[in-house]
Amino acid sequence: MKNAIGVVVTAGLAIGVCAPAKAQNLEGTLKKVKETGTITIGHRDSSIPLSYLDDKLQPIGFSIELCKHVVEAVKAKLAMPNLSVKYNPVTSATRLPLVANGTVDIECGSTANMTSRQAQVGFSYTFFVPQFKWITRTNNDIKTADDLRGKTVAVTAGTNTALFVNKLNNDGKLGMTIMQARITPNHSCWSRPAAPARGWKMTS
User: Fold this and answer.
1) Range of the domain at 53
2) Domains contained in the chain, number
3) In this structure, what is the dihedral angle of CA atoms 2, 51, 27, 80, given to the nearest 10 degrees?
4) What is the pTM of this model?
5) Considering only CA atoms, which of 187, 152, 193, 190 is closest in space to residue 169?
6) CA–CA dist 165, 154 (Å, integer)
7) What's CA 108's distance to the chain center, in Å?
8) If exposure means fewest CB atoms within 10 Å of the residue's CB, which of 74, 83, 110, 186 is most exposed?
9) Which of 71, 101, 123 delimits the end of a domain?
10) Domain with 165 in it: what CATH number?
11) Is residue 101 classed exposed, middle or buried when 0-12, 13-18 and 19+ CB atoms within 10 A define those classes?
């Protein structure tokens, strides 16, 4: 399953930056940014390599670099070279609500562009297409979804992977125990084996 990832923005910011408009016609997010003198960036803390914290706990990553370019475009459009930039941490569960309610003006992370999400927020052009993998112990002979029958699987809460695994479990009547974690380090889906073993393997 491949997912198109783009920067998450409010509709006003996405449209406003791309299309020229007179200052007096500003509305939505651009108007808010103009009036407050601040643009707030939502970031993740461990979505490597797109959005994570460095050793000084500062947001870095590919998505963050792209958002910095967006900020420069906003500064130029609003003629506000000294526009203040603030960072606000978000999680997979809070990122969309915080963009939708205006707490953050743009989310720079690893959010997949899905039709259902487009009803809540706007997306940038796709710049990253990942594919999730199942992670399991090397002594497990797990090659298909049916091999996960009755096993415990951990997924990151609030992600499209969690939705996919739940649907897979229900449709296939697999009887999996699905654990919703806040984050799984650098991976979307884990499978716990029936017996301990050394090493891990990845399977699509």
Assistant:
1) 8-123
2) 2
3) -140
4) 0.67
5) 152
6) 9
7) 8
8) 186
9) 123
10) 3.40.190.10
11) exposed
